[in-house]
Amino acid sequence: MSLTRHEIREKAFQALFALNANPEADENQLFEQLLNPDENAEVELPAYLSTLVTGVREHQSELDALIQPYLSRTWSLDRLAKADLIILRIAFFELKFVDDVPAKVAVNEAIELTKAFSDDRSRKFVSGVLGKAVKDQTV
Length: 139
Prior knowledge:
Function: Involved in transcription antitermination. Required for transcription of ribosomal RNA (rRNA) genes. Binds specifically to the boxA antiterminator sequence of the ribosomal RNA (rrn) operons.
Keywords: RNA-binding, Transcription, Transcription antitermination, Transcription regulation
Pfam families: NusB
Oligomer: single chain
Family: Belongs to the NusB family.
Protein name: Transcription antitermination protein NusB
CATH class: Mainly Alpha
Order of helices and strands: HHHHHHH
Distance between the termini: 33 Å
């Protein structure tokens, strides 16, 4: 069974969310839990899942610096809902570091992640931030 890029992004979000809550967690063990919840189905680790999770973690401070200018004066990264911040980090990572993902796809996928893991207010917020970033061509 192979995963679509959309499903891989969902797993990446889940992994990053879990790692945010427990930075000491074993990344490989986490991948195993996410990909084989019943332990009977053998699912191969998609390379793109590793690319997203490792890339977002390695470039987190750079991604946060790219996101910060798009927050209003009253908001800072630490005030954002963790889910929204992780979704923005994934999207900004794809926009900046993944050449085969068009900007429109990265933005749309981020909006889909907010539909799955956040709420309508967050969807509008994430959409606005990414829309401005793409328009400004900062990523």
